[in-house]
Amino acid sequence: MDSLGWEHAPLVLYFVLIAGLLLLLAPSFARRISPASALFLALAGLSLLYTWWYMLQYFQWSKAAAATRAGLPSITSQQWLRDSYLFEEAWLIVSKTTEAWWWSEQLCAWTAGPLTIFFAVEGKRRGIKHLWAFMLLGQVVAISVAQNLFFAALALVPRSKVDTSTPSEKDDTPPTSKPGVSWILLLSVLASLFTVGLSPRTTDGPYFLPNLLIMHALLILPLVPLPTYHSSLSLGRLYSYTAIIALRLRLPTYTTLLEGHEISLVGLRAWLPELFKQAYTTLFQHPAQSSIGYDVLFASLSFVVWMVYENHKMGRDKVAWVWVAGLVSMTPLVGVAVSSGLYLGARELELEKVEGRRLVAEKKEL
């Protein structure tokens, strides 16, 4: 067994960071258990199992690849860690080809768009602490793990205690001049989605890693407590815009994948099975790809579960079930960023109606 050296420090600190984040966040989702929170905790556990099974295999592959580059049959872990750039290497693997990016793009657009907004807004509505830590945990472990822990935390907040107004509305501003989402959230989300679009175009140049780091940093920024300045854009519209942007980001990917195929209804019907067959093949082409692919699958699955759960809990103020069913069915094709943005946008419209009725009732009481 290799002895510990300074080369191990980043990896050791990495796991210390994960442990610290889990300890920090545990009171939010583990102070008690409800059936719904137990379901999301189970999904978090399954996601962790699948994503990290392949992540550990990726570590083994990376060490073997480093030995091959050195022209040696094997190398020590010190040599491996000294000569490898795991973060950049893994992301290059899952971004290089269109088939690989078909998977990775879904996770990036979901995280940069609807999920960041959801963490920021819903976390403040329900009084969940350390929102930035959920996002950071998602970045260092798996997004699907972090979002399931967040869903578990949400499930522990009784709906009777949920403030349906957005955080930007919790002041003395008259309803006629109600502020929109914060500028920090708006600009961070738009800039992060821009970096998502740049990512596959930078894989062969020096800007890939800087672009990737900027993307990750921008996701933390709106979740850190900072002075808030409000835009005029409503939350529902922002969710809808992220869905549109995510769909726009998918177009070049599908344009490339459709090359050589007939663009017609018959041609598309014949192509769809081929698309998902190729996606399945790509999922297992490399351990890094498998890890992020399962992250996408569990992120999509857990959001669908939460969407159905939340819509049921909304009672008469819910989004139409036919709309929810349509979004569920389209998720495998367009990605969770699109379907989630559309659902959350529609949900905000319903919550605004609830808030409007509450204000009318308060005026009548006066």
From TrEMBL:
InterPro entries: DUF2834
UniProt KW Transmembrane keyword: yes
UniProt keyword terms in alphabetical order: Membrane, Transmembrane, Transmembrane helix
Transmembrane segments: 12-30, 37-55, 100-121, 133-157, 180-200, 207-226, 292-309, 321-344
Keyword Cell membrane applies: no
Source species, domain of life: Eukaryota
Protein name, per record: Uncharacterized protein
